[in-house]
Amino acid sequence: MCVAAPGKIIELNDNIAKVDYNGNIVNANAGVVNVSVGDYVLVHAGLIIQKVSKSEAQQMQELFRELEEL
User: Fold this and answer.
1) Total domain count for the chain?
2) Which domain holds residue 45?
């Protein structure tokens, strides 16, 4: 089972997105999901697999912070 944390797209060039995970910037292929700069996404194996709402992303980020504290 994989767990993906939400990241925010900060740049998009063709099908390559720069995704920000709290300051950790990674490249991800955006060829499968229609996304734009500012969207929150889930990435698996370098591929954007799902777009999520800002509120859903914030809920997931809070859950991950709580899990880190355990």
Assistant:
1) 1
2) 7-69
Model's pTM, two decimal places?
0.88
Which residues fall within 8 angstroms of residue 42, CB to CB, at 6 or more apart? 4, 5, 6, 7, 48, 49, 50, 52
Is 25 among the domain residues?
Answer: yes
Beta bridge partners of 9: 19
Q: What is the pLDDT of residues 17-64, one digit of tens each?
A: 999 998 999 999 999 999 999 999 999 999 999 999 999 999 998 998
The tokens for 13 are 């060039």
* Whole-angstrom distance, CA of residue 49 vs CA of residue 23: 21
* Lookup: tokens for 14: 């063709």
* Measured CA distances, 46 to 1, 15, 41 (Å): 16, 12, 12
